[in-house]
Amino acid sequence: MEITPGTRASDAERNAIVAQLGTHLADGRLDLGEYDLRVAKVYATTTRDQLDVVLADLPPLTKPQTAAAVERKPGPRFPVWQRIEAGSWLGVSVIVLVIWGLVSLTAGELTYFWPMWVIGPWGAVLLFRVLTGWEAAPGTETHIKRMIKDSKHINPHAKPHDPH
């Protein structure tokens, strides 16, 4: 095993190099394929010396680039697919209630409330998925835990990567 001399690179340093590569991509010095390869190299590096090699053939930037902090905007609590499913559930619920209401009105009495068999189980499944985070959005803690768990089935000897 070869031991590379040099100081270990931090995540902040890697992110700053990726930001510089992004500027070079925007300026046309790199194409998308080469940018992708270099970003992969940056995240695979362990030392600062290896980070310098990634930028060796590119001119230095006049203003130092820093990785912008990822700012999460408070958006909708539910992922888009859950909002679509909830909208579908609500639409179908209204339709079956209207049908039941029209049948009851035509019959002159309240008939058996059969819409509960459409509304209830479907709503219960949707509520379960919202509360448990089942089918969590990519990037969420639940999704990352599930991916780590699933990757152990592929390679049981793999060590989990802690991004923090």
Provide the fold topology.
Elements: H1 11-27, H2 32-44, H3 48-54, H4 80-107, H5 116-132, H6 141-154
Structure description:
The protein is mainly α. It is built from six helices and no strands. It has helices spanning 11-27, 32-44, 48-54, 80-107, 116-132, 141-154. α1 runs antiparallel to α2 (32-44) and α4 (80-107) runs antiparallel to α5 (116-132). The protein is elongated. It starts with 10 loop residues before the first helix and ends in a 10-residue tail after the last helix.
Q: What characteristics describe this protein?
A:
164 residues; 6 helices; mainly alpha
Secondary-structure element order, as H and E? HHHHHH
Helical amount among residues, as a percent range? Answer: 55-70%
Strand content: under 5%
Shape: elongated
What is the straight-line distance between the termini? Answer: 26 Å
- Biggest β-sheet strands, sense, barrel: none
Strand-pairing-aware structural class? mainly alpha
Q: Total helix count?
A: 6
Mean pLDDT: 79
Précis, in short:
By secondary structure, the chain is mainly alpha-helical. The chain is built from six helices and no strands. Helix 1 (11-27) runs antiparallel to helix 2 (32-44) and helix 4 packs antiparallel against helix 5.
